[in-house]
Amino acid sequence: MDTRDRGRRTAVSGGSAEGALPGLTPLLYEATARLDAHFAACATAVGLTAAQANAVYELADPVGMRELGRRMCCEPPNVTFVVDRLEERGLVVRGPLPGDRRAKQVALTADGLGLRAELLAKLAEDPPLRGLGDADRRTLRTLLARALAESDPAPTDA
């Protein structure tokens, strides 16, 4: 965790929003930090950077570069850089995006699909939320999805 994250966690843990369950925000930050660390370790274990693993993870089906960037929460130049590295390794191919001849679509190759399966298997090993059973994880996913769907995303400077 970098110093910005530590500062943010300290700032939010000192107080709580009116009506919020005390202590929820720091727990969410800690869970996120553990999930990020687990994802990065699994990426390294299969020979990818975290950004490359993120792209491979998101490429269950071929998608346009813009959509891949949205899924990865990445700016277009960063997506291009990541896809370039994956293409050099023979893990993805680019082609025309159906319906938009100016845009590119990215798809995993057979090697990329194999590496994605390996990544998914690693992610399932010793997960950060292993203290929760399957039913509890499904409930947590449902609650988080509902909370996120019912709230507006934070404003951006874009």
UniProtKB/TrEMBL annotation:
SMART domains: HTH_MARR (SM00347). InterPro entries: HTH_MarR-typ (IPR000835), MarR/SlyA-like (IPR039422), WH-like_DNA-bd_sf (IPR036388), WH_DNA-bd_sf (IPR036390). It comes from the Bacteria. Residues 21-149 form the HTH marR-type domain. Transmembrane segments: none annotated. PANTHER family: MARR FAMILY REGULATORY PROTEIN, TRANSCRIPTIONAL REGULATOR, MARR FAMILY. This is HTH marR-type domain-containing protein. It comes from Yinghuangia aomiensis. The lineage of its organism: Bacteria, Bacillati, Actinomycetota, Actinomycetes, Kitasatosporales.
